[in-house]
Amino acid sequence: MPDPILQEPLYTQPGHLLRRAQQISASIFHDEIGSQVTPMQYAVLCVLLDNPGVDQVSVAGLAAIDTSTAASVAMRLEEKGLLSRQVDPANRRQRILTLTGQGRDLLRSLNDAIARLHRRIFEKFSPEEETQFMTLLQKLVDVNNHQSRAPLTTARSRLAAEAAKNPVPDKV
């Protein structure tokens, strides 16, 4: 009989289950991808594919990682030849990141492995269960983004923030 000190058993707590799900996902990622890149490096490369020439701080926000981690990930990816980092002439403390041809080739080559990873994660789910799970997981992430130590920023939210700072008068 479990000790009644816990109101909620460990194996039913959402935080524990989310940590286990991430642990399983990372394990499958490494099975499929090997040591080519880590899940975080993959995320940064994907962000750069969609946002060429973005600064390092923005990459951190778009990948939902802290800025110091983004800097170290970018340095490792640069060492691997997968991205280039250039000093931003407008702000010499900032780095502009660009995916290299080798980085693009790597992402292209990983498509089949990422598809296998996806299939393995959901192999025991029906298509409806997978859709429902992904919808609820996205909702969980979206409604709790503000509680993250490294919240996701999106191009849309950045544009909205810029628009709020510089409102355009209504046309009459």
Automatic annotation (TrEMBL):
Keyword entries, A-Z: DNA-binding, Transcription, Transcription regulation
Pfam families found in the cross-reference section: MarR
Ranges that cross the membrane: none
BP term (GO), one: response to stress
One GO molecular-function entry: DNA binding
InterPro entries the UniProt entry points to: HTH_MarR-typ, MarR/SlyA-like, Tscrpt_reg_MarR-type_CS, WH-like_DNA-bd_sf, WH_DNA-bd_sf
Domain HTH marR-type positions: 11-142
PROSITE patterns for the chain: HTH_MARR_1, HTH_MARR_2
Name of the featured protein: MarR family transcriptional regulator
Gene source species: Castellaniella ginsengisoli
Lineage: Bacteria, Pseudomonadati, Pseudomonadota, Betaproteobacteria, Burkholderiales
